[in-house]
Amino acid sequence: MKDERVAGAAADDDGLTQAVQEAGAVELLLIRHGESEGNVAATEAREAGVEVIEVPARDADVNLSGTGRDQAKALGTALGRTAAEFRPDAVVSSPYARARQTAEIAVETAGWPVQVRTDERLRDRELGILDRLTRLGVESRYPEESERRDWLGKLYYRPPGGESWADVALRLRSVLAELNNLGTGHRVMLVCHDAVIMLFRYVLEGLSEKELLDLAAREAILNASVTRFVRPSGAGPWTLESFNVADHLAEQGIAVTEHAGDTSVRPQ
Questions:
Q1: Which residue from 43, 106, 151, 190 has the fewest beta carbons nearer than 10 Å?
Q2: 174: nearest Cα among 246, 125, 119
Q3: pLDDT tens across 160-191, in order?
Q4: Alpha helices in 55-134 (DSSP H)
Q5: Which helix (H) or strand (E) is 229 found in, with range?
Q6: What is the mean pLDDT of residues 229-247?
Q7: Residue 118 in contact with residue 95, Cβ under 8 Å?
Q8: Distances (CA, A) of 42 to 3, 119, 162, 266
Q9: Rounded to an integer, what distance in angstroms lies between the CA atom of residue 82 and that of residue 187?
Q10: Which of 66, 61, 69, 126 is nearest to 103 (CA)?
């Protein structure tokens, strides 16, 4: 990995608040989880033209695939090269199994003496009644919802029982408020999901709806990729240093996987 550094925590209780009480952030690393069994199932379902994604468990409990575990190890190997002064003070993960496993494997492989904490605000977007359905499945079973989704676009469309991207952004603003109100000098690594990373960019960079959806339409967050924000003063705005970097996988001979969601994101 090229000049990628990290962030993390060691605290007595779970959650971002406890994990970084003594660590204001100057560096923020956003990691997408490694390839999951759900990623594989969703891609296979879309390619097969079926309506339902046959996942092995509820979304929160879907594990990494074998490739995903290899990606997490490769990530840990790359992060383990980080100089001691740039190593994490806090590592906080989505509680979903695929993210937590990625964080734990990477930290163990890197040899970092830091405990992985979880925070439910970093979980993936909840899809409500559309959970486990392909785009074809939504169009077939919930045609009115399909039309409403196309009309509103991905930022504001909220499926019944689920969340819009705007809802997820509210969660992330809460996370960042804690970081912004703490002292300076430390580094935080957050292990989460593709939509969450996109929405961190939306919030941190002050993107417009159009800018966000244009980005989402042309870019897919790679599994086990690294996105890095910095603010050397420990206060004020963040600067995007690198985005969606997965060179560390290819350099170690590990498959680079994309598994993008629905790219039809703009209002129509």
A1: 151
A2: 119
A3: 999 999 999 999 999 998 887 655 558 899 99
A4: 66-79, 97-110
A5: strand 226-230
A6: 92
A7: yes
A8: 33, 25, 18, 21
A9: 12
A10: 69
Which pair of structure tokens corresponds to residue 62?
């879907």
Alpha-carbon distance of 8 to 24, in angstroms, equals 11
Q: Are 223 and 215 in contact (CB under 8 A)?
A: no
Q: Phi and psi for 106 in degrees, rounded to 5?
A: -65, -45
Query: What does the DSSP 8-state code read for residue 70?
Result: H
Cα–Cα distance between 154 and 140 in angstroms, integer? Answer: 19
If one counts every other C-beta atom within 10 angstroms of the C-beta of residue 57, the result is 11
d(CA 30, CA 188): 9
**pLDDT category, 232, cuts 50, 70, 90?**
confident
> Which amino acid appears at position 84 of this protein?
A
Q: Read off the pLDDT of residues 150-162 as tens digits, 9 standing for 90 and up.
A: 999 999 999 999 9
* Parallel/antiparallel/unpaired status of strands 226-230 and 90-93: unpaired
Three-state DSSP state, 149: helix
**Helices (H) then strands (E): counts for the chain:** 10, 6
Task: Average the pLDDT over 250-266 and give the result.
Answer: 87
Asked if residues 73 and 105 have their Cβ atoms less than 8 Å apart, the reply is yes
Tracing tokens 């970093």 back to the chain, one arrives at 122
Say how far residue 124 (Cα) sits from the centre of its chain: 7
Measured CA to CA, the distance from residue 257 to residue 179 in angstroms comes to: 31
Given a contact cutoff of 8 angstroms between Cβ atoms, the answer to whether 192 and 32 are in contact is yes
Supply the pTM of this predicted model.
0.90
- Separation CA 104–CA 93 (nearest Å): 9
Distance CA 156, CA 249 (A): 34
